[in-house]
Amino acid sequence: MAGILEDPENANKGTEYVVRDVEDHPPPHPYDVGDVIPDDGRIVTQQEQTSLLRGLSQRHVQMIAIAGAIGTGLFLGLGSSIATGGPLGALLGYALVGLVVCAIQFALGEVSALLPVTGSFVRHAEVLVDPAMAFAIGWNVVYGCFISVPSEISASVVLIQYWTESVNPAVWVTILIVVSVGVAVSFIGVYGEIEFFFAILKILLVVFVVILGLVIDLGGIPGKPRLGFHYWKDPGPLVEYIASGSWGRFLGFWAVMTNAVYSFAGVESLAMAAAETKNPRQNIPKACKRVFARVTIFYLAAVLIVGMLVRSDDPRLQDYAETAAQSPFVIAASDAGIKAIPSVVNAICLTSAWSSSNQSILAGTRTLYGLAIKGHAPKIFLRTNKWGVPYTCVAMQVAFSFLAYMCVSNSALTVFYWLVDLTAAGTLISWITIALNHIRLLQALKEQGISPQSLPWHNRITRYSSWFALISCVVILFTGGFAVFTKGSWDPATFVSSYLDIPLVLLAYGGYKLIRRTKIIPLQMVPIRQALDEAANDPENVPIKTDTILAKINIFWG
C-alpha cells in the first residue's frame, strides 16, 4: 500500500513513517520467543506476533466473557440491591446497567476486530484518541488489576473462613498466591481451560438456583405456601432510600444501578489477550455480541426470582459477613428448609473470587505488556518465557499480591474493603474509554470517507449505543457516591472510593501531555487504512461457520 501517514504518537513533532503493504513486504522474524523486538510501525506489532503464543480458542473467549459477567456480585451482592431498591428497583437497575454493558461489549468487539492488540482498549486509545490517554488509562488499569488480586484473595479467605476459622489466614493466602502464580506463568491455554470450567460451574449454579427459586415460589416445597409476587405487594416493589416519597424511591433505584456496575466488572477483560487468541478478529466480536443474551437470561432471571422469594426489609440481607449467609439464594433456601445450599453457594463464590483474581492477573499483566510495547513502561516487561507469558509482568503482579497478608493481623473482611475502596471507579473509567474509542473510530471513518461496512465486524446500532453507554457511564461515575453528599451521611472512605480514580487519571493524563507534549490525534491521521490492510492480509481472519442447529442456539460458548 502506498502512502505516508503521520505517526500518531508523535503527531505534534511531524514524524512520518511509511505504511507498507504486509503482503508485499512481509516482516522478517529473526527473533526467538522472549526477545525484545524493535517496534516495526505496525498496529499489531511483530513483538506480539513473535513473542506471544495463541492459546485461547473460541470456546475459551466465550466463557471468559461469561465468567466476567457472573461473579460474587450476583451471588452475594444481589441481596443488598434488593434491600436498597426493592424487587422492582433492583430489576430496573440491573436491566439498565445490563444495556450499558451490552453497548460497551458491542463497541469493544467492533474496535477489537479491527485492532486485535494486547492491552485491548488501552492500546486502542493510543491509535484512536491520544497517547497520553493510553498512558493514563493503561496505568490506571494496571494499578486497579494489581490491587484487585490481593482484594480477591482476601475475599477468598473470608469465604473459606465460613467453614473453618482454626487455620491461620496466612496459610490460605500462601496457597492462593502460589496456585495463582502457577496459572499465570503457564501457557495461556491453561488459564482458558480453568476459566472455562469455572464458568460452567457458575452457569450451572445460576440455572439451579433459578429453577429452585421457581419451585419454592410456586409452592413446590411440601408445607410451604405459594408466594407468587406477594413480596412485590408487601412491603412493595420499590424501597425509599435516604429520602421519602417518589424521590426516595428513585434514589433507591439509582443506588442499585451504581452497585450493579461493579457486579458486571470484568466483562471488558475478554479482549485483553487478543494477541493470544486464535482468529481474534472473528472470535472476540462473537463473544462480545452474545453478552446481551447472557445478561438477559442469567442476571435478570436471578434478580426477578430473588425479588419474589425474599422480602426487601429482611434484616438478613443487611448481614455484611460477605459469606454465603448473606446470599439471598441461601436465605430463600433456608426458609424453605433446604440445608445444603449455603455450602454449595459458598463453594461457587470461592471459585468466583479466585477466578476474578486470575482474570485481574491476566488483564493487569497484558496491559502492562502493551504499555511496554509502546514505551509507556520499561522494556523489561516485554520479556516472555517459552510459553509466551510475560513473566516479568507476572513478577510485578506477585509483588502486589503480598498485600493480602494484611489479613493476618487484621480482619480479612476489613482488608477486602480497604483494597476495594482503592479501585471503586476503575470499571466505569475503563467503560468510558471503550465507548470513546469506538466513537472516535466512527468519526475517523466518516472524516476519511470510509464506509463502516468495511470494518471486520460492524453493527449499525453501535453508532447510537456507544453514545448511550458513554453518557450513562459518565453520569454514574459522577453520581456514584451521591449518598455522602446528603445530610448526615458524610463518609470520607466512601467519598474516596467513589471519586479517587478521577483525579488520578486526570493527573496522569495531564502530566504525560505536559512532559511529552502530545496532542489529540486528528481524525484524518487515524491509521484506519493501515489497520484495514493488516486485517485483509491476516491469514487467520477467516469467517467462522456455524453449521449445526445446536451451535447456532448455543449462547454459552458456541
Provide structural commentary:
With 558 residues, the protein is mostly helical. It has one domain (4-553): Amino acid/polyamine transporter I (Up-down Bundle), CATH 1.20.1740. It is 60% helix and 1% strand. The protein contains 22 helices and 2 strands. It has a two-stranded antiparallel sheet. α6 packs antiparallel against α16 and α8 packs antiparallel against α14 (341-373). It is globular and about 70 Å long.
Condensed summary:
With 558 residues, this protein is mostly helical.
SSE topology:
Blueprint: E1 4-6, E2 16-18, H1 46-51, H2 58-69, H3 72-75, H4 78-114, H5 121-128, H6 131-160, H7 169-184, H8 188-217, H9 230-233, H10 245-263, H11 280-289, H12 291-309, H13 328-335, H14 341-373, H15 391-401, H16 412-421, H17 426-447, H18 462-479, H19 492-499, H20 501-516, H21 528-536, H22 549-553
Helix pairs in contact: 2-8, 2-11, 4-10, 4-11, 4-12, 4-17, 4-18, 5-6, 5-17, 6-7, 6-14, 6-15, 6-16, 6-17, 6-20, 7-14, 8-12, 8-14, 14-15, 17-18
Helix percent reads: 55-70%
Mean pLDDT: 82
User: Regarding CATH, which class?
Assistant: Mainly Alpha
Write down the Rg.
24 Å
Provide the domain count.
1
User: How are the strands of the largest sheet arranged?
Assistant: 1-2
SS-based class:
mainly alpha
Count of helical regions = 22
Q: Could you state the oligomeric state of the chains shown? A: single chain
Terminal residue distance: 37 Å
What percentage of amino acids are in beta strands?
under 5%
CATH H-level superfamily title: Amino acid/polyamine transporter I
Biggest sheet architecture: 2 strands, antiparallel
- The low-confidence parts are 1-29
Run of helices and strands: EEHHHHHHHHHHHHHHHHHHHHHH
Total strands: the figure is: 2
